[in-house]
Design goal:
The chain has no helices and four strands. The two termini are 13 Å apart. With 76 residues, it is an all-beta fold.
Length: 76
């Protein structure tokens, strides 16, 4: 586990649909990385709601160190 609480140190490639609402895990505890599964309850850390404009493949951050939430910027 890294200092952010996440066990992941690499981005996750996912296919997302335009206009659909997604919740990115910000606490690092979700078993559905990079998406929220509610494991944050009681931590004071909330998931990040996001949508994308164009359906396609994106790389989402799983290490939780990105400066471009929820997308990977290779900060790890």
């Amino acid at each position: 586990m890294n200092e952010s609480g996440s066990m992941w140190n690499c981005p996750v490639q996912v296919q997302l649909e335009a206009g659909k609402r997604y919740y990115w895990c910000q606490c690092g505890l979700s078993q559905l990385q990079p998406f929220c599964d509610g494991s944050h309850r009681g931590t004071g850390i909330n998931p990040v709601l996001f949508t994308i404009e164009k359906t396609g493949v994106v790389w989402l951050c799983a290490c939780k160190k990105t400066g471009n939430i929820p997308f990977c910027d290779c900060s790890n």
